[in-house]
Amino acid sequence: MYEDEIRKSILHDIKHKVFMKKHDTKDLDTSADRDASRMSRYKRAYEDMTAEFLSMSFIFEREISEHARKEYEKYCIKEYINSNDVTEILYEKLLNDKIVGLFNEVTTMPYTSLKYHTLLVCVLHYNYKLGRDFQNLFLHCNTEKPKDKYTIIFQYRNFWFSINNDPSGAKIGAPIPHFGNTIGRLNDIQLPEFIIDNLRRIRSWSIGLQYLEDILVFINEKEV
Predict the structure, then answer these.
(1) What's the CA gap between 52 and 46, in Å, rounded?
(2) How many C-alpha atoms does 6 have within 13 Å on its Cβ side?
(3) pLDDT tens across 147-159, in order?
(4) What secondary structure, in 3-state letters, does 123-135 show?
């Protein structure tokens, strides 16, 4: 359901931020992009929203050359813009993509993540198309993959975050869409305590989710 809308959600900001092109605000007929921006930007939104690579994440130093940037642009064209993948595969690819996470969501806000901003847009837009309201959406921590794949906002190995209208989770808009506060209202998160403590300190959703990906990759690489 809504495969075309999910595809539009994915391409909407990838085209805009990776290639520094002004996007068409009419691409999506819901407030998903605006609401996702409010969740990702920990202060007032800026007009200058052209993309730049992260020079550093919380965990890894990333020195990106101009040559590498051009190669990453080619990657985005091949894997997303000109992809013939069905929407389900394209969405799964984005959930596991490491390259799109190298782009800032906003130039003036280091560590904001284009990858997780785009996933927020997709998940919100999908929920809105199903008739759900922002103030009645909830974050869930899952140890089994959710059946409704377009509600998944994060996945790493056997760990998933999803957003839907099931009130058993933590309300994402109460009292404000603060990532750390929302995490603090979830029970039984299967993560090391120091990671949960750090997540509770992060206001921006895209920063928090990118940090979580970075730290889990770092921990698991050290264990190999």
Answers:
(1) 14
(2) 23
(3) 999 999 999 988 9
(4) HHHHHHHCCCCHH
